[in-house]
Amino acid sequence: MAYTVPKLEDYSAAALDKAVEELKAALYQEADAVSNENKWKEFRDRWMARKNGILTQINDLWLKAAPGSAKREVGARVNQLKTGVASIVEAKHALALNAPVTFTSQGIEIPRAKDWESFRKLATDPVLDITLPGIRRPLGAEHPVIKTMNEIVSVFRAMGYSVADGPEIETDYYNFESLNFPPNHPARDTQDTIFISGQEKKQQRDRLLLRTHTSPVQIHTMEKHPPPIRVVVPGKVHRADTADATHSPIFHQVEGLAVDTNITFCDLKGTLDHAMKALFGSSVKTRFYPSFFPFTEPSADVQITCFKCGGKGCRLCKMSGWIELLGCGMVDPNVFNFVESNGYDAEKVSGFAFGMGVERITMLKYGIDDIQLFYQGDVRFLEQFA
Amino acid sequence: MRISPTWLREFVDLKVNETQLADELTLAGVAVESVKEMDGQTLFEMEIGTNRPDAMCHYGVARECSAIYDIALKPIAPKLPKAKPAAIPVPVEIQDAKGCARYTVRVVRNVKIAPSPAKILARLKIDDHGGINNVVDASNYTLMEIGHPTHAFDLDKLEGGKIIVRRARAGETLKTLDDVVRKLDPEDLIIADAVRPVALAGIMGGMDSAISSATKNILIESAWFDPVTVRKTARRLGMHTDASHIFERGADWGGTGLACDRVAELVLETAGGELEGEPVDVVARHLVTYSIWLRRSEIQRHLGQEIPEATVTRILSRLGFKLTAVTPATLDALKKLDPADTPEQKQAVVIAAGDIAKATGLASEQIMAIIAASKNWGPSWMVDLPTWRLDVEREIDLIEEIARIYGYNKFANTLPAFSGGVVELLNADKQAKARALLLALGYNEAIAPTFISQADATAFSGSAVVPLANPLSEEQSVMRSSLVPGMLNMLAWNLNRGTSDVRLFEIGHVFSAPAEETTAQATMLCLGATGNAISPSVHGAARAYSFFDVKGDIETLLAAFELPGLKFEPTDRYHQGHGARAVADGVVVAEFGQLHPDVAAARKLKQEIYIAEIYLDHLFQFLLRSPRYQPLSRYPAVDRDFSFSFSDSVRFEQIQSAIHALNIAELQSFQPAEIFRGGSVPQGKYSVLLRAQFQSADRTLRDDEVAQWSARIIKALEALGGILRS
Ligand SMILES: [Zn+2]
Of A106, A203, A295, B627, which sits most exposed with the smallest number of CB within 10 A? Predict the structure, then answer.
């Protein structure tokens, strides 16, 4: 309820103090609500208008009505209030219109307002309600997919892997042919490809498409650097998948490649076992089983013990205790043949490659049930990862 | 594909239970996706890779079991009665050896077409096949059992009783079993009788020669068709059948006779009739004409673990490979080889290793090179390949077979030795810095779709777009040429869901087509902001996000870089009078401003929207700013305020440069403190309070020097048309 100036029945010091306190409380509260020029004008007029402003009212209702014995005491307080109100109104005009200034609990800086000093003390002396929420500066949140992708890259960086990248629009040669996907091979069907239009005039190997995996960067890297190499490749890939809760035409992968003399299948296993422990905790175990990728041989899929139930079986791991996380294998000698001139003699060097879907890992890690949430920019979702 | 473990047990005496079997098959690469119960029996739902057509049947999976558990695989040997001799064997002619390597047929006469017996139907049901009739079912049963597709023709419907395998002729058509008339292409491989096409080779038979209730005499086809040929036709016609699935992946060249006999056996059993003549087996070409040289040293080199010779032999033999150890004499001769040997000496060794050269079909130079590369390869074998494993062509393929049956998880976990440094992506540090700043400024990181509509591409960028050949929809038909449409969609998404204060950023690629048939990719950073810069709370009022918020955020971001001569110029890119671009060294590094209200309205954005586009490829050409230390002055700073009024045409940048040009070393800062318009300030003018701060590193400033500098400042401001206010 809006403050109205009461008539004073009692002019004792205690009653005066109480009336002054009530008035000040109303002043702070109303000052606080001033958020623009118009409100400030209302505020100013309500308190300082000559005709019927609150200051005028206390002059009339308190000072003029006071018995002679109390006039001195009341007069001192009314004068103090007059200067106090004037400085608040003035300060509010100068400052509050551009920056929110809090008049209640925080105290206030009023330039050159000596009279305000006593007011300020009074205002700050009361105990703060420290249970009120603090004033927080909002922080941005990392996108969970990029956060996870960076975490994966960091694990491999710590194992001596350099970081590489490549274009999202690729040629058939890099996305398929040099990765041992011959033209017209059914393995191409497993990667629903989005093609760039207007490529018909070109040779098949030169036709442009959206890379369906980050594996083309394996070839780019080997073309640029002779062995030994160790790279990790984060990146965005696309497939002609209709969007639903588990499919997205966009997703991210992290690829890895190590080539040297004497790189073995045991090294592949050890490397990924180490990496999975670094990512998901030292208690996870890995399990490898045969798979097929045209560009690796032998090829494997890797499962880790479910990080939710620890392998006992739960809904996340479909009661199996295991979660499939990535594909890998030893680099197929046919792939080396495409970069033989840069020192990749399949009889001398060997290597391994691996790749993982970042969205899938992120979803498993946080229990996210709809992949579309990653691409909507919904602040309610993103803020959960701050 | 489904597999019945009960059926498997007819071919191998398995000791393990169903659950263990499913697990161990999966771990050997024949993946059991799930185990289910159907009609009281356990079934495995399989996931077999495209390279393993041989395992897409019960006998093939049984063979895997035989290798995994080292148990004998029972042979399938159809028992056929002695055939009545045929008057004339069926004439079979393969005109296209590329498309068809082998074609085997048998004739059964006087069959009685009827439903199959329950036992057959129960087995077909495993794969959700209802029965059709006893002859067709025999073919399907055989496919599930041994994996080779076969086809039965009504022999009396084949004109001239003749089979020709050839490419289709222009204009030919065929009504296939699914009742669709197919226009044939000269690339299509077909089966024809004397007159016309009767089947699409390896895909589907023709309606006219199909088995019907009136069929008396049948011809069973069991052939090997070329995968690429079958695949091209199947794809062109949009067909996918059980048969094409196998042929596209590579059927068993050696299995045509067995499959033909097995179908005949089942037909005789379920439809009666008599076998006529011996099978006609026409071989147009052989597929597997070489052996593989398998070196134990290579097994070790790739796998990193020693596998006993006996294990190698056992695994490969169980899978149907035939191993012959390379003799000690050959070995010795090869081991003696020295790279310094004369060509004659080398030739002698190659002759000694003649069996290798002959069997592998490798050129002698290749063998020499291999030998020269690794002299210590220890024991080795010549490996003959089974006709059903077309995926095994090389030594590495055999090594994979050994590894997967041996068990991937029996291999040790080791880490490879490595020396060398880690190289980061070129701009990794710059991108990390930019990202960290934006997060600290309260922008949430987002990822928008890569595809936008042609209309958006045109509206938000001037570059030629990269259209997709097979877009997911019209709204997503081109590669994004700007991050702005995606950003606006994300802002709208939030506003429509009741979140009115939004700050987002995205780092991503945009695409253009600089010339016909080429594409280019550039890295962009986009900011989007709307709503309050400061939210209302119990402690204070709200403040709406403004142009100067986005400008401040851009300034903070750009301050991380060494940007020589950075300046801000007006741009009408977003909304006339409400946009700016940041230019450094003549390069535009960022553009930002308020989105035009009409554009916002068209997208149903009902708040002021602020957008920034930062050209990261340009920005990252500049160095990150390295901190520079300056000693702190021990002497007090002096502030002086100047209240001026200027014409609206005088921009702050002009005031700043005029003051800068005075070269007052002690002037530490010169900032606008307040600006007023209206009230006592006349129209077309504004009043500004400017605050100068002076400080010296080596002395306390005297009043007279500050007064002198102030006078120069006033003069400079008056030269700009400024009027000093009292
Ligand atoms: Zn679990």
Answer: B627
- Residue B643: per-residue pLDDT: 95
Residues of B within 8 A of A351 (CB-CB) are none
Fold match, B92-283 / B428-619: no
Instruction: State how far residue A13 is from chain B, nearest Cα, in angstroms.
Output: 32
Phi, psi of A365 (to 5 degrees): -65, -40
For the residues B365-394, what does the mean pLDDT come to?
Answer: 73
Q: Residue A129: inside a domain, yes or no?
A: no
Residues A68 and A199 both lie in one domain: no
CB of A133 within 8 Å of a chain B CB? The answer is yes
Q: Residue A340 sits in which domain range?
A: 144-385
Residues 6+ apart with CB under 8 A from B190: B165, B166, B167, B168, B172, B174, B184, B197, B198, B199, B200, B201
Q: Which DSSP state fits B613?
A: E
CATH topology (fold) of B92-283: Phenylalanyl-tRNA Synthetase; Chain B, domain 3 (3.50.40)
Instruction: Say which CATH architecture domain B2-69 belongs to.
Output: 2-Layer Sandwich (3.30)
CA of B567 to the centre of ligand 1 (A): 57
Whether residue A233 sits in one domain with residue A177: yes
CATH topology of domain B428-619: BirA Bifunctional Protein; domain 2 (3.30.930)
CA-nearest residue to A333 within chain B is B396
Residue ranges in chain A modelled with pLDDT below 70: 1, 94-126, 186
Tell me, yes or no, whether A161 and A72 share the same domain: no
The answer to whether residues B272 and B112 touch, using CB atoms and an 8 Å cutoff, is yes
In angstroms, the CA A326 to CA A357 distance is 7
Instruction: Kindly determine whether residue B441 and residue A140, on different chains, have CB atoms separated by under 8 Å.
Output: yes
Instruction: Report residue B89's pLDDT band, with 50, 70 and 90 as the boundaries.
Output: confident
Is there a domain that residue A188 lies in? Answer: yes
Cβ of residue B543 closer than 8 Å to a chain A Cβ = yes
Structural domain total, chain A = 2
pLDDT at residue A18, as a whole number: 87
- For residues A164 and A295, state if they share a domain: yes
Query: B211 CA to middle of ligand 1, Å?
Result: 52
- Contacts B370 to A, Cβ<8 Å: 347
CA distance A70 to chain B (A): 38
Radius of gyration of chain A (CA): 36
Interchain proximity B446–A139, CB inside 8 Å: no
Phi and psi torsions of B449, nearest 5°: -55, 150
Task: Among A240, A258, A376, select the one facing B493 at the smallest CB separation.
Answer: A376
Ordered alpha helix ranges (H), A211-332: 216-224, 265-280
Domain ranges of chain B: 2-69, 92-283, 292-410, 428-619, 638-724
Q: Are B399 and B303 in contact (CB under 8 A)?
A: yes
Is the CB of B414 less than 8 angstroms away from the CB of A267?
Answer: yes
pLDDT at B280 over 90: yes
**Structural fold of domain B638-724:** Alpha-Beta Plaits (3.30.70)
Flag whether residue B303 sits within 8 Å of chain A, measured between CB atoms: yes
Closest partner residue to B538 (CB to CB) among A132, A236, A386 is A132
| pLDDT for B376 | 54
What pLDDT, in 10s, does the model give residues A247-291?
999 999 999 999 999 999 999 999 999 999 999 999 999 999 999
A218 within some domain: yes
Residue A109 belongs to a domain: no
Give me the CATH number covering residue A298.
3.30.930.10
Q: Report pLDDT for A213.
A: 96
Q: Residue B463 and residue B445: Cα distance in Å, rounded?
A: 26
ipTM of predicted complex: 0.86
Check B472 against A379: CB less than 8 A apart: no
Residue in the structure block whose two tokens are 């600089």: B514
Same domain, A194 and A335: yes
CA dihedral B472, B474, B480, B484 (to 10 degrees): -120
DSSP for residue A225: S
A264 with B403: Cβ contact below 8 A: no
CB proximity B323 to A under 8 Å: no
Mutate to test the interface with B, among A169, A237, A261, A334 (most CBs of B within 10 A): A169
Query: Do A235 and A360 sit in the same domain of this protein?
Result: yes
pLDDT tens by residue, B312-365: 999 999 999 999 887 656 656 655 656 566 655 555 555 555 555 555 555 555
